[in-house]
Design a protein that fits this description.
heterodimer; A: 435 residues; alpha+beta; 5-stranded mixed β-sheet; 18 helices; 10% strand; B: 106 residues
Chain lengths: 435, 106
């Protein structure tokens, strides 16, 4: 109601439809408004509630030249399960700064499955569980580096660091190069939109790094994933250079950003949700359930699709060539699927959330992300069971198609390191975090 | 429609009237059997529909193909009668089959 309306006693009542259409029209997954808690969730909840009130699980946004936005859980599943009508060529919108379609992620069938099968088994539970010890050791070594200080930014020192270290180990890169991976990922996924001139040299540096790594492994193969990819055969032939480069880019981007955001969001929540933190400290067997709730409640990624043909879905006429953005952070709080959807409950019956996708394109690293998050939280809470968000420093949420906490400064009672000597790779991360 | 009994990770028995020609995973999903996630939708790439059959039923149906066998080999808590239910087609003779859902799909 406007001030003038108040004065004259007029009342401008908008229909539920108008409210939903208005919110859909303003939707921009790259720039959601942040609320008092520093996250976009108050906005996501308002959008969801308006969409439900209007019975519109899908609407049109005017941002980025116009695209469809989907907020309903069942609507998201229906679109993800219909790859013939909705192509993965539109999974990232606007596209990242890569020239070729992103390997696996932006491919449709049959190409997607042909390439995916070359690496899929490496990401299955038994194989990723082989990295459990490396994950626990990396977490503890990082904690050793700051536990005596009594304060640290948990995103840079832990949430960004562990996934980058594990990605380095998987790909056979030196761990001390980890901080550069983070810069490249940011350049590819964010900076190329906000500051393309600054992003360009970083992306070139990344490709040059991959070129060197590939050359080295062609001469002397190792047991890392890049060597495995170089030696693999696609329909009986070895992969060409562009294909190998494509895998390197995919594994670097895929391995770091989602995991870092899931862990960072969890450590932020545990920084203020004392009751939850103490439940997990008292009974670490609940950490697995908690990770599922962190994934659901603070889903880092939206995923896009590109309509391959004209079709009508949920009453909307979608034209071939139009982009569709699945707002998974909203869909994962759909009350039709999740009772009290905004509450974090360790007793919640197992319903399958969409944080890691659904259908043939379900995240190839899903088991790795879960394990990383579980191990980091388990080890961290063992060492630092009591901590709180630093009252003197801001938490920062980074917006983007993959969004989440990128600074979580905390304070705690200083403790003692277990080991005094650290790997150079871990030391590089600590320097990076403390700068 | 043969009646199939799923046993969920909490030991609850769920009777399902399964459609012949559908996959065993689809029968479980249609009845919302807890523990069967099937997030890839039946494409044999995620192993989140992992279940255990009874020995006599395991022996009666066609064995896993190479893709499924590889996936099972990379899954945790595998037993001799482990199967990915998305790879099993329901037949009319499945009446009374008992299928135990794996306690962990991750």
């Amino acid at each position: 109601m406007s001030e003038q309306g108040l004065a004259t006693g007029e009342c401008h009542v908008s229909s539920a439809q108008d409210v939903a259409n208005h919110l859909y029209a303003q939707f921009d997954h790259l720039d959601p408004p942040l609320g008092a808690d520093g996250t976009p969730y108050a906005y996501y909840e308002a959008l969801r509630d308006a969409a439900i009130e209007a019975d519109e699980p899908m609407g049109w946004s005017d941002s980025h030249g116009g695209f469809w936005v989907v907020t309903g859980y069942n609507a998201c599943i229906e679109i993800m399960r219909d790859p013939d009508a909705f192509s993965n060529a539109g999974v990232i919108f606007p596209r990242y700064a890569v020239s070729e379609p992103l390997m696996i992620v932006e491919q449709d069938e049959p190409e997607h499955m042909r390439y995916r099968k070359l690496v899929n088994l490496s990401f299955m539970p038994k194989n990723v569980s082989g990295y459990s010890e490396v994950m626990a050791d990396a977490t503890n070594d990082l904690i050793d580096g700051f536990i005596a200080d009594g304060r640290i930014d948990l995103v840079r020192a832990v949430a960004d660091a562990v996934p980058a270290i594990i990605t380095a180990v998987l790909l056979g890169f030196p761990i001390e190069d980890g901080p550069r991976f983070g810069e490249w990922t940011i350049a590819l996924a964010h900076e190329f939109i906000t500051d393309p001139e600054a992003a360009k040299p970083k992306i070139e540096e990344m490709y040059a790094y991959f070129e060197d790594a590939i050359t080295l492994r062609k001469k002397s193969p190792s047991n890392d994933l890049i060597s495995q990819i170089i030696q693999s055969k696609l329909d009986g032939r070895p992969l060409n250079h562009e294909e190998i480069l494509g895998f390197c880019t995919l594994l670097l981007i895929g391995g770091i950003e989602n995991s870092a955001k899931v862990i960072g969001n969890a450590l932020w929540r545990l920084g203020w949700d004392i009751e939850l933190r103490r439940q997990l400290v008292d009974d670490p067997s609940k950490i697995g359930r908690a990770v599922e709730e962190f994934l659901r409640l603070y889903t880092p990624g939206h995923v896009g699709r590109l309509a391959s043909r004209d079709c009508t879905i949920f009453g909307k006429k979608v034209k071939a060539g139009q982009h569709i953005m699945l707002a998974l952070p909203v869909a994962n709080r759909d009350p039709a699927i999740f009772v009290l959807p905004d509450a974090l409950s360790l007793q919640r019956p197992k319903s399958v959330h969409l944080a890691l996708g659904s259908g043939t394109h379900v995240c190839i690293g899903q088991h790795l992300i879960r394990l990383e998050a579980q191990i980091v939280l388990r080890e961290f809470l063992k060492r630092i069971p009591e901590y709180r968000l630093d009252p003197d420093l801001p938490q920062i949420w980074t917006k983007g198609q993959v969004g989440g906490m990128s600074r979580v400064p905390v304070v705690f009672t200083p403790g003692m390191p277990i080991k005094l000597n650290r790997e150079p790779g871990v030391e590089a991360w600590l320097q990076h975090a403390k700068n | 429609m043969p009646k199939i009994i799923f046993i969920d990770p909490d030991n609850n028995e769920i009777e399902v009237n399964a459609e012949v020609g559908a996959s065993l995973m689809e029968a479980a999903m249609a009845a919302s059997v807890p523990g069967v996630e099937a997030v890839c939708g039946g494409n044999c790439v995620c192993a989140t529909c992992h279940c255990f059959l009874e020995a006599q039923w395991y022996a009666r149906i066609p064995p896993p193909n190479e893709d499924e066998a590889e996936m099972l080999d990379a899954t945790i808590e595998v037993r001799p009668t482990s199967r990915l239910t998305c790879q099993i087609t329901v037949e009319s003779g499945f009446e009374g089959m008992r299928v135990e859902v794996s306690p962990s799909q991750h």
